[in-house]
Amino acid sequence: MQQDSRSWLILAHAYLRVPDLQGLLDLFGSVDAIVEQPRSRLAEAGLADDKCVAITSPDASAIDTALAWLDHEQHHLVAWGDDGYPAIYADIPGPPLLLYVNGDVDALHLPALAIIGSRNPTQGGRRNAHDFARHLAGQGFAIVSGLAQGIDAAAHQGALDAGGRTIAFLGTGIDRVYPASNRHLAHAIAERGALVSEYPLGAPPERRHFPERNRLISGLSLGTLVVEAARRSGSLITARLAAEQGREVFALPGSIHNPLARGCHKLIRQGAKLVETADDILAELRPLVGHLRETSVETSANERPSAAVDEDYDELRKFLSHDPVSIDELEKQSGLTIDQLSSMLLILELHGEVESLSGGRYALAG
Prior knowledge:
Layout (H helix, E strand, L loop, with lengths): L2 H11 L4 H11 L2 H5 L3 H6 L4 H8 L3 H10 L5 E5 L18 E6 L8 E5 L6 H16 L3 E4 L5 H11 L4 E4 L13 H10 L1 E4 L11 H12 L2 E4 L7 H11 L3 E4 L10 H8 L3 E2 L3 H8 L25 H7 L7 E2 H8 L3 H13 L3 E4 L3 E4 L2
């Protein structure tokens, strides 16, 4: 293993910040030279005493463990200043010094959208997160979230179901999965995207880690979509960080009787863009990433989106017209369940085939 990997790990274990590093590089020239300095020289350079100690007397066992972890072909370190470091982090406060990545490093350079929300969403909120992620991943976005239960997990799964890329930022060391119930999902993300952490291996899920990692979720993304959130949700903190980082903020509206819609409504009042379809997001972000594929709404009228081409969708289309029909009537006519219809109608709405009308009715668009 190259010496500079060990040096970067020593600096990361000392919780060195990028401004600290920049000052030390100006004095000593390289990360290898920094870790070879005596404690007195680091102190003279203005480094805090606890960081001086951590650099000059590193935990050799922890460093060796991290180097052993790096032996796996899917495991990577991405350091500040490397070619593989996400350029989009250059303009955020507190950019990460070092990222531990399990998966595809190239995923960090795709145009990305964060999808976040409640850990205990409604069934409709979970479905919306999944379906928006599936549609947008199919359009070329990497879907970014935090591997939490609820909206996060649904968004990750939606991207995977589209055959797209998804990135999960962890509030623990890269070798730990929290919550443990998402272990299988984490393995799938590592295979088809990336798990990312700025914390040393073995770091537990400390409370402070999660708001810290949220700046990385919003910072890597061109925009952040909040699906469901209570008024005091941590998702609102991430949305605020996104706005402060100059990113777009989107929010799904909901029923005034749903407490998990109140956080989204608060964001909308504060200036977040109200979103009803995935195309609302694409319209805002496409000018920033001109190479993204056109949406299905803009394709030929004879082309049908691949996400909605199967026998069930064809059967449902038989009962749709420009005359509004309720979902209860569709249930009776089609033989599909309400849950199936809700999901399918949303997909068709995302693709511009169907529009949702007042009173829970649906009609063909156009």
